[in-house]
Write a structure and sequence with these properties.
By secondary structure, this protein is an alpha+beta fold. The chain has a domain of about 70 residues: Ribosomal Protein L30, Chain: A (2-Layer Sandwich). Helix content is about 60%, strand content about 20%. The chain has four helices and three strands. The protein has a three-stranded antiparallel β-sheet.
Length: about 100
């Protein structure tokens, strides 16, 4: 009887190990979705950055101002590479530093 108890307990322990291996495999593939983080901004360009964040994220002017002033802060998550690069270039042109993670 104790033998059956041990064999049943061993089987579920093997399953999580297989799941971890499956999760590690996609990490080796090229990343397609990125998170965009507003790192910092040029003080002179603050109004332009606030306006761009407002239109990009659909926030109110007050919320956009608070968002920009609280940098570094996560802007968007799960953004495709092409769209992320466009956003980074747009904000970089305005004087902000955005990082794709």
């Amino acid at each position: 009887m104790p033998m059956d108890g041990f064999s049943a307990a061993a089987a579920p322990a093997a399953a999580p190990a297989a799941v971890e291996e499956e999760e590690a495999a996609p990490a080796a593939q090229e990343k397609t979705l990125f998170n965009l983080k507003l790192q910092s901004f040029d003080a002179a360009a603050k109004p332009k950055v606030i306006k761009e964040i407002k239109s990009m994220l659909g926030l109110s002017l007050v919320d956009s101002k608070k968002f920009v002033e609280s940098a570094p802060k996560m802007m968007k998550e799960g953004v495709p590479k092409e769209e992320g690069e466009k956003i980074v270039e747009t904000l970089k042109g305005l004087g902000a530093v955005v990082v794709m993670e």
